[in-house]
Amino acid sequence: MKNRMNRLIFLLFFLLFYSTNSQAALEIDVTEGNLRPMPIAITTVIDKQNEQLGLGLDITKVIASDLAGSGLFYPINPKAFLEEVNSVDRSPNFNSWRVVNAEALFTAELIYENERYKINYKLWDTFTEKSLEANYLVFSKNKWRNVAHMIADTIYTRLTDEKGYFDTQIAFIAESGPKTERIKRLAIMDQDGQNPVLLTSGKDLVLTPRFSPNGKELVYLSYRNGQPQVYIYDIQSKQTYVVGTFPGITFAPRFSPDGKKIIMSLQEGVGSNLFEMDLSNFDRKRLTNTSDINTAPSYSPNTRNIVFESDKSGTQQLYVMDANGNNVRRISFGTGSYSTPVWSPRGDYIAFTKISKGRFMIGVMFADGSGERIITDGFHNEGPTWAPNGRVLMFFRESPGEDGGPMIYSVDITGYNERKIETPGYASDPSWSALMN
Amino acid sequence: MIYKKALNLSLTFLLIFILTGCGSTRKNIEQVLFGGGNNNEAEIVSNAIPGSSQDFTVNVGDRVFFATNSTSLDDDAKAILERQASWLELYPEISIIVEGHADERGTREYNIALSAKRADIAVAYLESLGIAGDRIETVPYGKERPVAACSSEACWSQNRRAVSVVIIE
What we know:
The complex is a heterodimer of chains A (about 425) and B (about 170). With about 425 residues, chain A is mainly beta. Chain A has helices at about 1-20, 25-30, 55-70, 95-100, 145-160; strands at about 40, 75, 105-115, 115-125, 130-140, 170-175, 185-190, 195-200, 205-210, 215-220, 230-235, 240, 250-255, 260-265, 270-280, 285, 295-300, 305-310, 315-320, 330, 335-345, 350-355, 360-365, 375-380, 380-385, 390-400, 405-410, 420, 425-430. Chain A has two domains: about 35-160, TolB, N-terminal domain (Rossmann fold), CATH 3.40.50.10070; about 170-430, TolB, C-terminal domain (Neuraminidase, 6 Propeller), CATH 2.120.10. Chain A is built from five helices and 29 strands. In chain A, the strands form seven sheets. Chain A has a five-stranded mixed β-sheet, covered by helices on one side. A four-stranded antiparallel β-sheet of chain A has the order 8-7-6-29, with no helix packed on it. The model of chain A is unreliable at about 15-35 (pLDDT under 50). The model of chain B is unreliable at about 1-40 (pLDDT under 50). Chain B folds into two domains: about 1-45, no CATH class; about 55-165, CATH 3.30.1330.60. In chain B, strand 2 (about 95-100), helix 6 and strand 3 (about 135-140) form a beta-alpha-beta unit.
């Protein structure tokens, strides 16, 4: 079965490599039918003690929704199941699962003890009849969603050999009010759009939140003091502090992969230049010194390089430089302009916004600029962010017109499996966290 | 606010004149208040208190416009900034905030930088005309505060702007 999954992944990457023109997204849509998601049987989590609470069913639904949402799995309708699973300890009748085409089988049982829940779960290969995973998690009830996402991540990892991305959060800007007086608030939600929480009142205009690598802080832009400045928000304490005092406007912040530094733009009158600030002592280091617009910096995961956008050639293009600011080289050469580059956590790709012929696209290219592929194309797509496994992107798509506004979407880096994230209202500037647990 | 008070006061007088049946005066006041001609707005503005932000906005012109992705001032923009500078010379106690803006056809971070550059270009021109830099602040709004909400050039051209906002202490 792993072979089949590997084949599927190979196919995805085959498409990735061989569709290098801007029509790629459309072509991939056509081949979507060839990518048959793996059928998996996710049996309802057994909950003998507290069946009426429905917790077992809730956990089951989240696991199935995560796996289906990845586009790589097809959870089989439980009505088709031939065998009722009464115990996680008993070996299933594999033949009855093969008959319903399940290639993998998930079973689990909840036990309530000492005011805590324990979930025992197993993942089976129905063809080899071997257990792929047998484990348990102990949790308090309010963590049940995290537990469901963690189990889904484990299933995803066992069956694809890739890290999962379900137990993660998205920081974003929640938008309300008319387009000319838009109210913007800092917000976070689970990766699947659940548990949205507003963090700021909307009094001050806020933009571009970015998660710290440990998921505990956000660095963002706020007009709190009238001028745009970079601030850090501590999610647990709800405290906010300004990131150093600069003689000008600071914007476009991002954490370094170790979380110890922040890289951002400082507007200096003649242009915008990149600075790095050490959070331990607030020492700042200038990285560019030109009269152009140099902005939207992002570190490589090994911290050795920085990708950013600059209009030094006349239009916005992508550049990579050494982390000390040396050795600047342009990497984008297609028609149009390129901006908001973000380095994949795997190091292989750089995602970006591309503007060409009045259309706004999301694309990826290798870190040396080769292999450019457009993933989505339309009136306005902007601001990609990577899932921690570097396989999925989120971005925002703005609809045109007076009542238009942004919504957040996720998409596989092949351009396959695009999904809208349900948010309470308009939402923009997504930033994907690392795995939370 | 001051303008509103003036208008209210005038309306009160108008009412008195109507009630007292003072026909000819009433007509004159109507002409002042409502123009009586073809450009109501301009006539009303003649009522704006000199040195007020209304006076600046309509009699001088509070904003200049830019071409797509451009930060350079065309002749129209320069003419308006020259009028702004003359007005600011008349009222040396007044300071201004120059807001830079961009249209929605750019990415967020770039538009902040672009709008900052637009504000700075406008400020540099005002300074070259003799206005002291310490009377002027700038705020870049990127694409966050459009005045026109449609998604076509008719609106985008109004949104690519630098707006001088009068601060009266």
